[in-house]
Amino acid sequence: MAEKKQTPKKHRWRWLWTVLFIFLLAISLALIFNEQIKNWLISSYQPRISRKSVQSNQKKKASYDFSKVKSLDFSTVANARWNTADIHVVGEILMPQSKVHLPIAKGISNEVLALTAGTMRPDQKMGEGNYPLAGHHMTSQTILFSPLYWKTRVGQKIYLTDAKRVYEYQVSVRKFIPATDVQVIAQTKQKLVTLITCDATGANRLMIRGKYVKQMAYKDAPTSVQKGFHGSFNNRS
């Protein structure tokens, strides 16, 4: 007997069910691997930094509105990764013992904090007064400012660079503070770097503070430090 041909209507329904199945499968996989995909998006941000790009970005405006900062969910990271032109990188932070290496960008917008460490005042300058930076604490122990919670201890070194000079600090304080304690980012006469991230609960903050040691031309920095700055960002292996 001749095989019955499918009617156009049956063929259409089979096609729709196939499309629906693939769509639901894609959604399910995205939900299952949501955290892994989010971490990959963060780690894939590898901007090129030069003296010229830093000088240009230092002139650009940025947001310092703490009230607009959102938790770092998948949509926030994806949006940041799509809009990297809104991230104005002005330097790098390197903490060899904590395994932190991140771009430093102006401001604390959601785009900035999703992919970098953000400056917390519009007037701050490396090597002058208090230089505060904010960064997210993730479930991964190696992404963004998460290593501050797990690995940073008093006595460790912190290096900042604007691609022209390297500024060396040494961790002198590691303590938890209330989220309302905003005075820690205020300008000071003493040369400091202040790193702020969430604690494990997200309710309070961890503050890492380093005292200024010295500064040097980038080319005169120790070879290990230059090698660290030349490595990948966001603790990407």
From TrEMBL:
Keywords: Hydrolase, Protease, Thiol protease. The active site is at H136 (proton donor/acceptor), C198 (acyl-thioester intermediate). GO terms for biological process: proteolysis. Gene3D superfamilies: Sortase. SUPFAM superfamilies: Sortase. The keyword Protease applies. Pfam families: Sortase. InterPro entries: Sortase, Sortase_A, Sortase_dom-sf. One of its GO terms (molecular function) is cysteine-type peptidase activity. This is Sortase (Surface protein transpeptidase). It comes from Levilactobacillus brevis (strain ATCC 367 / BCRC 12310 / CIP 105137 / JCM 1170 / LMG 11437 / NCIMB 947 / NCTC 947) (Lactobacillus brevis).
